[in-house]
Amino acid sequence: MSEETTLAQPQPVRKQQQRSIVTQQKLLDAAIEAFSENGFKGTSTRDIAARAGVHHPLITYHFKNKDQLWRAAADHIFSAFTRSLSKSLEENRNMDAKKRMSAMIYAYVNYAKSQPALHKVMVQEASCPSPRLEWLIDTHLKPFFEASFSLLGELQDLGIAPAGNPALLFNMIRLSSGGLLALGNELKESSNIDIEDPRTLDEIAAMIIRVFLPGEMPAAAAKAS
Amino acid sequence: MSEETTLAQPQPVRKQQQRSIVTQQKLLDAAIEAFSENGFKGTSTRDIAARAGVHHPLITYHFKNKDQLWRAAADHIFSAFTRSLSKSLEENRNMDAKKRMSAMIYAYVNYAKSQPALHKVMVQEASCPSPRLEWLIDTHLKPFFEASFSLLGELQDLGIAPAGNPALLFNMIRLSSGGLLALGNELKESSNIDIEDPRTLDEIAAMIIRVFLPGEMPAAAAKAS
DNA sequence: ACACTTTTTGTCCAGACTGGAAGAATTACA
DNA sequence: TGTAATTCTTCCAGTCTGGACAAAAAGTGT
Which of A36, A155, A181, A201 is the Cys-Cys partner for A161 at CB 3.0 to 4.6 Å? Predict the structure, then answer.
């Protein structure tokens, strides 16, 4: 379920051809782009096919229908996202809680920049309850969120993060990074913030840490949390 | 340009009829709802008309076309929004800077709850540069944003708000309130946050103030900023 | 080289879409 | 009350939608 290739066909007798993998990848990339620009309803399968440089009936062939294509595309970016964040947590396993959280914030900001669709898709789907939204939350968001809540709780106990509902706090962090970067063009015009400038990304991450994790780690707890 | 009624016709010889005003209002409300759910491309004029309980050619009659209807609808909520925030600033003109900013945050959170379209529309339009986006920024966002930047700068000088680019800081505040509330359904599922509960709104506003305005006003500067 | 499978292409469909035309109904005002 | 402007309704044309299908092409494995 969580991997691409061999999505539509039940059990291929022969191995999947290279060109088929390429087509699927092109369709997924195009789908992410299109869906994040125009939402699910606002995107036509023909538009996706055109962006991918491919004939539109190939969508039916590879992904069965528009809904399945959406799921595959969302799965694609969200698993890459959680993979990237898990990796960051993994690499900093031995660091103290503040360093771990900071590293995660940097990872979040960078991934959100490279894939703003991540947040746009959420906003578009969050409008009204839909099977797509539910699937997305259960499959990708919940596990990662719950881990973050507890890490934040830890930081609150240490007096590093401000008090209050950690879930709320986490979502504010999430919006200050992912939500901010999703606004892209608007920020340039309205606030003279250029997210294309790599220094801006560091500035954003640094500010999030300054704002949401203002405390310092006590020397005693600096090694193990 | 900034007011509804008499949008399509050049100069009506007779005054506008009551039923016409009602129809326009119903169409505007329906349009806001529909556009915020499905984006510009994803919304059909027929859908809007159906939500408004009105025949679809009335859109042509009252607003000329889909694009003009979008502009009228956006104008509607954004001018109500800036009006609401200006009122808050006005009422607290004599208070100190922190109180003024706090009041604005409360106003922002409350308006974003009652009109989540405000933020959804921005995210949907921010995807790619569009004449609609530019118009929205120039007409409604920029004036209000610039006032906020300078108020925030003031708070930074007083050591109340964290240091850094005030424009960035302001946008984080904006996303932590408006962006958060736009996620509505998702938060309930993913983070067990119920934005329908009025206490949640207070909790959000209080947390934003705690996080973004952690300093206290110096006694000397408490009266005049 | 061959038969057989996977992948792509071209074409078609029924329904929904936008924008607009034209006439009927309603209302304002003298 | 009569009539002319305003508002609403009914229809149509041309385009786009998601999806279906057969036939062609390309690749696989023996």
Answer: A155
